[in-house]
Amino acid sequence: MTIPQPASYCIDLHCHSTASDGRLSPTDLVARARLQGVTHLALTDHDTTDGLAEASVAAAAQGLTLITGIELSCVWQKNTIHIVGLDMDTADPVFAARVAEQQQNRWRRAEAITTRLKKVVRGCPEDIQERATAEAGGDVPGRPHFARVLIEDGLVSDFGQAFKKYLGAGKPGDVKAFWPELAEVVRWVVEAGGIAVVAHPTKYKLTATKLRALVADFQEAGGQGIEVLTSGQGRGDLGFLSELCRRQGLLASQGSDFHVPGPDWCELGKIAAMPDDLIPVWQRFRRPVGIAQVA
To answer: Is 192 a domain residue?
Structure first.
């Protein structure tokens, strides 16, 4: 059975608001998505669902379908991996408690980032965590919020330099030690009735062999999908991930991973066409997006 991709839909299942490390409020994010032609949107803030209530009101006003979502941090073989949860019951009390615990992990991480930056950044302000928290609107600050403080104080020239010197992968501000294991996080999503998806699989810089091993462990834990289409993909990524989807019988997801207005390559709804022979994750939502199957 082939599930055709309809021209009448624009589906973006990965984006961020000010509830985590995005620059737009949930309301403004939904409005921008609608302007970009998005018809179905999942708000997937990092380790929180706090933006979903506001986004739901905005989506109803804009005539846009909102999918419940979250992007959860976890660890697999000492690598930080992100799992997108889609269409889960966010009111489930067990799931809510687990997300609250994850938020505490993020605060501990923010404190660790603060300690490390103060050691390695000459002239690092003593109040960097407080200012990063203010940049986050009072929520848990992530690395982009710390970067903004460094830029404001002239300690780095821009985000690129901030991440290259202090906050990127393998740098002092890249703190990984506070996340639960992959299998545990996948279980959280599945037990809340949702679908677990490996976010941006090629961004972890794993070898093809390692990525296949990650996917195998993910599936064993109950995971069902991977993002085959996301921003910043390299040449050949779509082909590789599509084939991985086919071979492993995975659902295919897609999302812009939008954080800030400006960069055209990660704009809301700006997603390449998904291969027709993949099974889209939205066909397995509790209320599937209305795409008829054809023989």
So the answer is: no
Q: What is the bridge-based pairing of β-strands 251-255 and 69-76?
A: unpaired
Our count of domains for the chain comes to 1
Residue 226 located in a structural domain: no
DSSP assignment of 248-294, as one string?
Answer: HTPEEEEE--B-SSS-GGG-TT--PPPPTTS-BGGGGSSS--S---B
Three-state DSSP state, 70: strand
Predicted local distance difference test score (pLDDT) of residue 290: 63
Query: What pLDDT sits at residue 3?
Result: 41
> Is residue 149 domain-resident?
yes
Residue 256 lies in a domain: no
Show the domain range for 124: 106-167
CB atoms within 10 A of CB 108: 14
- Helical segments of 121-207, H only: 128-135, 143-152, 159-162, 182-191
CA dihedral 140, 146, 149, 151 (to 10 degrees): -150
Percent of the chain with pLDDT over 90: 81
CB 95, CB 191: distance < 8 Å: yes
Cα separation of 183 and 193, whole Å? 16
DSSP reduced 3-state for 166? helix
CB 198 within 8 A of CB 216: no
Question: Each residue of 38-69: b (16+ CB within 10 Å) or e?
Answer: bbbbbbbbbbbbbbbebbeebbeebebbbbbb
Which positions ≥6 away from 236 have C-beta within 8 Å? Answer: none
Other CB atoms within 10 A of residue 84 CB? 28
Q: What is the pTM of this model?
A: 0.86
Within 8 A by CB and 6+ apart from 99, the residues are 47, 48, 49, 70, 188
Asked if 35 and 5 touch (Cβ cutoff 8 Å), the reply is no
Residue 2: other Cβ atoms inside 10 A = 11
Q: What is the mean pLDDT of the chain?
A: 92
